[in-house]
Structure to design on (398 residues):
């Protein structure tokens, strides 16, 4: 109980700190005047106008392959009612017991047990279908949907295509997956596999008071993060371009979660912890996929001497309060040798933070940066949501 109370206290304190320091800024934009410098408009070179075009990509996430040992399984349960008198004599040694997908401390040796028992023993079997591949598919789908700006092909739509075309999809065959993508009319296919689920038991140790508050705190944190069944997972996630059949992204993501402190191996607790670890690990694909499926717009209005800006992307594009937005300036540059005119894209060194004022197709941002950089911002300046980051420190620890 103390362990969980401490963990709750620690997480609550750290979460409160981050909530205070990282809360999105509040803003009343219409209270600010439009000044003369706010009315400047960008001139877009002909060679750069295509940069403003934005497309909603259609994406299908297919079921993931389950390459682990955790498939459908049968579990034996015993319910005992009555009384037993046990006389046990045993000799042996303590050591490490290793089983499929698990390892822990145990006891091996010879023994003799005399049992006098009266009562009822009810033993029954249960079927467990963890559906690891389907869970991985759902976790990735949710992450992609939350990015915004993407039309995700639903499972019912996917099944309709398979039924109508009488198509059998082999998830292990990339060519078959690409063929399905063309039949479905999607731009990208996201596929992958759950490569392993590993469970390792670390026994509980007695807490030792060091007499130092900080050392006691460190010891308590270490215990709360490691004792019990340590479940680790690894998944491979791929993004396939349907038009070319090329794999654009292939990324491995790893997760970790505790699956209970009791030494007895419980497959249901391990699977539950593994799913939580997998769900958290897919956060690591956000940094890559948010660059590919990026929300893109432009500045519609500036106020307060380029202190705030109204941008043309909002909730429908996945924009949320606290998001960071990047701004770009363009120049048409003529190649010295070929004479061809190309568009050069340069990042403007400002930090634009989305405020609490977010509408369906627009959002207000606060602009931070030096005056020289802010002076380059104009009505019509191209903006993009900055790539998201992966798992944070707390996610990896817990």
């Amino acid at each position: 109980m103390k362990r969980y109370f401490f963990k709750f206290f620690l997480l609550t304190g750290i979460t409160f700190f981050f909530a205070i320091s990282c809360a999105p800024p509040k803003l009343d934009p219409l209270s600010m005047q439009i000044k003369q410098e706010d009315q400047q408009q960008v001139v877009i070179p002909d060679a750069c106008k295509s940069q403003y075009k934005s497309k909603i990509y259609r994406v299908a996430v297919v079921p993931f392959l389950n390459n682990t040992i955790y498939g459908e399984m049968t579990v034996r349960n015993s319910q005992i009612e009555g009384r037993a008198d046990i006389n046990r004599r045993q000799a042996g040694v303590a050591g490490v017991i290793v089983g499929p997908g698990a390892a822990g401390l145990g006891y091996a040796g010879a023994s003799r047990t005399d049992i006098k028992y009266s009562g009822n023993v009810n033993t029954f079997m249960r079927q467990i279908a963890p559906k690891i591949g389907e869970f991985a598919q759902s976790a990735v789908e949710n992450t992609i949907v939350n990015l915004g700006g993407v039309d995700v092909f639903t499972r019912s739509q996917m099944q309709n295509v398979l039924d109508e075309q009488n198509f059998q999809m082999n998830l292990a065959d990339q060519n078959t997956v690409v063929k399905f993508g063309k039949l479905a009319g999607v731009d990208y296919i996201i596929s992958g596999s759950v490569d392993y689920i590993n469970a390792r038991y670390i026994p509980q140790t007695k807490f030792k008071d060091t007499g130092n508050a900080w050392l006691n705190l460190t010891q308590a944190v270490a215990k709360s993060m490691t004792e019990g069944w340590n479940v680790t997972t690894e998944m491979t996630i791929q993004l396939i371009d349907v038009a070319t059949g090329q794999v654009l992204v292939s990324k491995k993501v790893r997760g970790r979660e505790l699956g209970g402190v009791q030494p007895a191996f419980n497959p249901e607790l391990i699977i539950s912890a593994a799913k939580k670890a997998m769900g958290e690990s897919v956060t690591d694909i956000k940094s890559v996929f948010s660059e590919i499926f990026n929300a893109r717009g432009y500045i519609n209005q500036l106020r307060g001497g380029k202190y705030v800006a109204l941008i043309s992307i909002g909730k429908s594009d996945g924009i949320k309060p606290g998001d960071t937005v990047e701004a770009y300036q363009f120049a048409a540059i003529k190649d010295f040798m070929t004479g061809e005119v190309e568009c050069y894209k340069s990042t403007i060194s400002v930090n634009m933070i989305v405020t609490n004022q977010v509408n369906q197709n627009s959002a207000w941002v606060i602009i931070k940066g030096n005056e020289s950089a802010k002076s380059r911002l104009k009505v019509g300046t191209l903006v993009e949501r900055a790539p998201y980051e992966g798992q944070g420190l707390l996610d990896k620890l817990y």
